[in-house]
Amino acid sequence: MRNLSILGSGVLLAANGVMAQDRPLNIVYIMTDDHSYQTISAYGSTVNHTPNIDRLAERGVRFTNSFVANSLSGPSRACMLTGKHSHANGFTDNTKRFDGSQQTFPKLLRQAGYQTAMIGKWHLVSLPTGFDYWDILTGQGDYYNPTFIRSTDGDTNHAEHLQRHGYSTTITTDLALDWLSSQRDPQRPFCLFIHHKAPHRTWMPDLQDLELYSDSTYELPSNFYDDYSGRRAAQEQRMTIARDMDVVYDLKMADRDSTIHSFDPTLEQWGRAMYTQRMDSAQQAAWDRHYQPLIAKFRERFGQKIADGTMSRADSLELNRWKYQQYMRDYLRVIHSVDRNVGRVLDYLKDNGLLDNTLVVYTSDQGFYMGEHGWFDKRFMYEESFRTPLIMSLPAAYGGRQGITSDAMVQNIDYAPTFLEAAGVAVPADIQGESMLSELKKMKAPNKGSSRDRMNETTKTKTRALYYHYYEYPDEHRVNRHFGIRTKRYSLMRFYGDVNQWELYDLKRDPQNMHNIYGKLGTLQLTKRLKKKLLRLQERYDDPIRHTVTD
Ligand code: SGN
Ligand code: CA
Predict the structure, then answer these.
(1) Which of 94, 122, 252, 263 to mutate to test the pocket of ligand 1 (most atoms within 8 A of CB)?
(2) Which of 51, 16, 96, 58 is nearest to 471 (CA)?
């Protein structure tokens, strides 16, 4: 496809392709950090409502087989920017630095006449390239009064640090709306990234949401007490709620006189600083009004026993359940703010006549464990963290269909070619992902029923197998390196390094990855077939690991 051409008095018209209209398509790409599909009502959440994300799903396509290529923030972002797997874009784990001189889709859009802006969490160490405007959180970003690095002309030499007052999700949205209303050129199409820190650890809610869910209790996932039998890497991880989620650092039991202790003094110190140092006095007072009474109760119930080392087994079990409830409440409060801010963006687009010529996307950098397997965090190629929510709404005028569910197998390396194709920009041959545009457009005629009925419609076109490769080990949560293949029905994984083990799951029978059937009777042919396919994918994507781990 050809690029956009500027005609007449500065009015941009599409040369061909999807943009048959006189208005080129804009892109608003909203991404959160660690948002589980389990906590989105459009994905069937039983624990919360996300009316605004659902509103987007009603206007677009909700993908039920959406996966990442490497379940971690930096790698995931590098995959989506380049449309390439981690080994090809070089950003294999969070200790790397993104090579910003390489090809990315914002650069290609910009060359084709788009204005590009990146606001919020970036997390790629090097500063952004390919954007006309960027305003990024430093590192992981802070929830309260966060520091941003901004360049109003995209030039790193003009970058400045700014600390802004308030709550991260709201500020990121404010900046995005400000860019839309007063900084972009309304004559040209745009691609705007709104990338939130939320709901990343340590799940700090906005002050206005602190009292939500206080009376709610949550059922433990059925595999909360998983014993990881048959799965050695799962036995080695350090991401259980019971052992690794910290009461001071994660669950905010930072009492002023320091009688409650973390298992790790450094973590305790960080936690105490995080809940006292960044907020101003009004924020601190509101925060304390909520958490101090909880802290007092916690001290009475568990504090002394933990300090004395006299916790019984029953106490430990109760503490584990308490931690889960506390985790869920804070996480869901943070999601409530995400959803409210998604609503603000949708309202803005609608009120300003932009909703009908803007592709709006909601996704997360990966999924997250909400207590499944007893865990928080991500990284594994198991379902909850391999999957990620994905909703894309292409306006009807561009052939987009509304309120549809797609079960096509898609992955975050597919976003780049999708955006490029939607914008009428040629997709370079070295991009490894595949455009999903046909999924956004190629839908059946709408049913007579409600949009909810239509959301149950499923298109079954793409049945491709997906490739996964995770590298960050032994850092932080000790998830061993692994790669694997996911077909619609099976997952075959190969852990390598300290743990060397194959794992095979029949997801139809075992959607929770509880029973590793690798090497079990009757799986020989299936395993052979999957290994062959896996090798073909490694060859196709040119992953050098195929030369070192051959079986
Ligand atoms: C931080 C978190 C980890 C998390 C990584 C990666 N610890 O290091 O729990 O796994 O980020 O997350 S924290 O104490 O700093 O919160 S990622 O999504 O950014 O890749
Ligand atoms: Ca993340």
Answers:
(1) 94
(2) 96
Q: Assess whether 36 and 148 both reside in one domain.
A: yes
> Is 129 exposed, middle or buried, given 0-12, 13-18 or 19+ CB atoms closer than 10 A?
buried
Half-sphere exposure of 269 (CA within 13 A, CB side): 3
Q: With left for phi above 0 and alpha for psi between -120 and 50, is residue 403 left, alpha or beta?
A: left
DSSP letter string, 18-46? T--SSSPPEEEEEEESS--GGG-GGGT-S
Ligand 1 neighbours by CB, cut-off 6 Å: 33-34, 72-73, 94, 140, 200-202, 365, 377, 476-477
Looking at the structure, do residues 405 and 518 belong to the same domain, yes or no? no
Q: Kindly give the distance from the C-alpha atom of residue 370 to the centroid of ligand 2, in angstroms, as a whole number.
A: 14
In the beta sheet, which residues pair with residue 26?
A: 358
Pull the structure tokens for residue 242. Answer: 């019971």
Spatial distance between the Cα atoms of 16 and 12, rounded to a whole number of angstroms: 12
pTM of the model: 0.94
- Ligand 2 centroid to residue 33 C-alpha, Å: 4
Q: 311 in a domain, yes or no?
A: no
- Of all helices (H) and strands (E), which one includes residue 411? strand 410-411
Atom of ligand 1 nearest to the CA of 239: 9
Q: How far away, in angstroms, is 92 Cα from ligand 2 center?
A: 14
Domain boundary among 408, 436, 459: 459
- Nearest atom in ligand 1 to the alpha carbon of residue 377 is 10
> Which residues partner with 66 through β-bridges?
410
Ligand 2 center to 144 CA (angstroms):
18
Of ligand 1's listed atoms, the one at least distance from the Cα of 33 is: 18
What is the SS3 assignment for 102-170? CCCHHHHHHHCCCEEEEEECCCCCCCCCCCCEEEEECCCCCCECCEEEEECCCCHHHCEEEECCCEHHH
Q: How many domains does the chain have?
A: 2
More confident residue, 334 or 6: 334
How close is the Cα of 379 to the center of ligand 1, in Å?
11
276-312 pLDDT, tens digit per residue, is 889 999 999 999 999 999 999 999 999 888 888 899 9
Task: For the beta carbon of residue 318, count every other beta carbon within 10 angstroms.
Answer: 14
User: What does the pLDDT read at residue 21?
Assistant: 55
Ligand 1 atom 14: residue of nearest CA: 201
